[in-house]
Amino acid sequence: MTHPYFLTVAYAGGGFHGWQIQTSLRSGQGDLWKALRAFDPEAPLPQGTGRTDAGVHARAQGVLIQANREWDPYRLLAALNAHLPRDIRVMRAQPAPAGFFPRQHAVAKRYIYRLGLGPAEDPLMAPFRWHIRQAGPLDLLAMAAAVPPLLGTHDFSSFRCTECAAKTPVRTLHGIRFAPSEGGVDLVFEGSSFLMHQVRIMTGTLVEVGKGRRRPDSLGAVLAAKDRTRAGLTAPPEGLCLEKVWYEAAWAIGEPSPWGERG
């Protein structure tokens, strides 16, 4: 008999080749499994809520583990962190209900893409932001004006990486908002789920609007084209972070989604 626990895991993505375990490259899933097996050698592979690309960060990767004994949640957290490198940490641990699977039961996610807008790149923030180099300021009002056509349920093929293996390009985007930060701005994306590189491509396209290279009213046509070549560049991974995940309320994992359950 195994005992399920739900973990909230944070990691600085610069040292990882993504979340998913790989044969010879470092991954978040691989590091966590190694730490778990240090004191529970028969434990199966931890299961995450979703993949993050190489270099992408996470503050709230939801992970299900199966332990071969019961644990006090804090002692489990401490035991795992004792065997983890400093750039990945278990932030919270709690017993998980039988039948819960984080990937299947997630209903919404929040990603934040951080842009640096100062005259020079802040070296302390460089691993976590994309610094926009240009003589003039980025037009944030134009970027905000470009957002509305992207909201709602659409075929996001134009904002989908060509290697994306998702069965359908249809996704629901609840919101994109701009949050000022010291020396920059955070682009906050909230949606049901996201395609491979979707947030990074949307960010790159919005930055082109902010630089005056695209009209603010052009994104509706880009979306309708269902053609990746019509959208902008893929923003670099270091600016992106998985910040929050909401799960179906029935499982009592965190607070309910503000947008309700899937129909």
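[next item in queue]
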Amino acid sequence: MQEKVSTRTQSLQNNPNLSQKDVRVVERILSKNDLKALEMKKRYQADGLYVLNFMSSPGSGKTTLLENLAGFEDFKFCVIEGDLQTNRDADRLLKKGVQAQQITTGEACHLEAAMIEGAYDILQSKGALQESDYLVIENVGNLVCPSSYNLGAAMNIVMLSTPEGDDKVLKYPTMFLCADAVVVSKADLMEVFNFRLSQVQEDMDRLKPDTPIFTLSHKDTHSLRAFKDFLAENRARNYQSAHVF
């Protein structure tokens, strides 16, 4: 923990956009979040839940992926949804029979562990946690802010949609360094957008070697099943992300 704090402090102090007062404020916020994330991780484990933190830019297809995963009878999950406004994503999942609790953050471009705690309590009161093997946290759509906030998840999944382009890994390295797996969505559009999967692979090899990369399309159920099986295998061996936020 001391090494983690020292590294973070140095990074903040080297930021030319932050004054020393700003650094102290940011440190207090992040330290408070880390403690709450550790507390939540213990709760997840005590409740027998394998927690997945899905991160991406807006419109990458996170909710659509969860709707499709709902079609697998052997993948029992509930969801905490994060958006600046509206309950639309939670409502979509409820229509698919998935228990979902929406968090509206207002102006915040990320979820924090304390926000998760409140939604978690609500899902628990509804019996959703007891009926689930997984809890999926669908983070606020943003390729920057969520990468700084630990939520205590076992795995961090970063999604990149084909229309966004194949150059995002090195443009947003802090986000992709979080990834225990990368999902390239809307893969059926690769030719249309001249999307090079080889570029994503090359950039991930430079940034974080050996990170699994999945290509998904709603037209290809085999790719979805392969991703679902990957998650199940990691749950079975109790894989826990080693990433330090």
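[queue empty]
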